[in-house]
Structure formats: structure tokens, C-alpha cells
Amino acid sequence: MNLYLVRHGQSVANDRGIIQGHKDFPLSELGQNQARLLGEFLESQSFDYIYSSHLTRAHETAKAISAHQPLDVIKWERICEINLGPLEGKTRQEIYLQYPELKAESKSILTTGIVGTETVEEITDRCHQVLEELLSGHKRHNVILVSHGGFISIFLMYLMYGHKWHQAHRPFVIGNTGVSRIEFLDDGKPIFHYINSDAHLLLANMQRESELF
């Protein structure tokens, strides 16, 4: 299986510096252009399936890709963003004012342990289930998953470090419409071809950085 992990284009919340999690926001005008460019860039490649998070920003991005492929988008709730509970809908500044320990301890927004957020155990279980479903159903397929910065980052770390992903340093960032390609061998072992490729934005001289989550 060749798996292409795609982060959604810039959302309205990304543009405003708002942490989203499960809160639903559409793409911004810039995000729509980023998604369109990615769809055009991938047009020459052949895919078998396009899956998308059920959240609007991811689904709109997936639709921009499918516009250049003879495929429908399949919504898959399991690949949605990390549930950030009481942190959602706030800027980082607002979060740090309410939870100063997060900034003092340099804690990741994704794994704070705050009541109401998705736990490390829950995230790990979700990554495991996604991987198992992909490997069992798509062994010979080229598959696109359009998801979110937080989930993609953690899923990649899970593929690299297994259940100890949260103890390891993350050596990459995932930008809006960044593409990561992983090839899975017959025994399920992953080969990382590239992470966060944004050649489609570079060619168009378009904005390439954004807030995560």
C-alpha cells in the first residue's frame, strides 16, 4: 500500500490563530486555493481511494483533490482531529492564560492531560485501529487520507515509535496541504518516502506556513 497523508488547507480558524480540535471551520480563501493547487498537482497520479475526516476543512480539501480523480470522497470519522475539549475555540494566548502550566512546562497542546481532552491511550488506540483497517483492506492500493495536523503528526510518530510515540521528539511539522507518503511492505513495515511535501505551493509561490490544530 502507498499511503498519502494530506493535511487540510488553511481554515478560517487557522487564519485567526484559533485552536480547532473537533470544532468545525471551513477553508479560508487561501485554503481553498491551496487545496485546488494540490488537486491539480496530483492529477497525473492514480489513486484507488480518497478518505477524509468528516470535518468541513478536511472534506473540502478532499473534494478539491477528487475533482481531478474519478473517485468519490469517503468520510472516515476515525481520522478526525485530536479532541482538545476545553482548549478548542481559543487562541494559544488564551489557553496559556487559563492554563499557565502548559507554557511553563512546554507541554504539547495535543497531550495536555486536561480533563475533557483525548487521552494518550485513546489517541494510541485510534492510531492502531486506523492502521489495522488500512493494512487489512488496502494492501495493494494507493490511498489518500485527508486529515489534520495533530492527527497526522501523531499517526506518523506512531508508525515510527509505536506505543511510545508520546515519549519521542517529533522531528517534523505538517503544514496546510502538506503531503506525506508512506509505503507499506507486505509485512506491514513502513517506508517513509517524504513528510510534509508542499511542492504544489512552492511552484505557485504560495504561503506555506500556518498554525497547527
UniProtKB/TrEMBL annotation:
Gene3D superfamilies: Phosphoglycerate mutase-like
SUPFAM superfamilies tied to this protein: Phosphoglycerate mutase-like
GO molecular function: fructose-2,6-bisphosphate 2-phosphatase activity
Assigned GO CC terms: cytosol
Active site: 8, 81
Keywords recorded for this protein, A-Z: Hydrolase, Membrane, Transmembrane, Transmembrane helix
Binding site for substrate: 7-14, 57
Pfam families to which the protein is assigned, alphabetical: His_Phos_1
Transmembrane segments: 143-161
InterPro entries attached to this UniProt entry: His_Pase_superF_clade-1, His_PPase_superfam, PG/BPGM_mutase_AS, Phosphoglycerate_Mutase
GO biological process, one term: negative regulation of glycolytic process
Superkingdom of the organism of origin: Bacteria
PANTHER family in the cross-refs: FRUCTOSE-2,6-BISPHOSPHATASE TIGAR
Protein name as catalogued: Histidine phosphatase family protein
Highest classification ranks of the organism: Bacteria, Bacillati, Bacillota, Bacilli, Bacillales
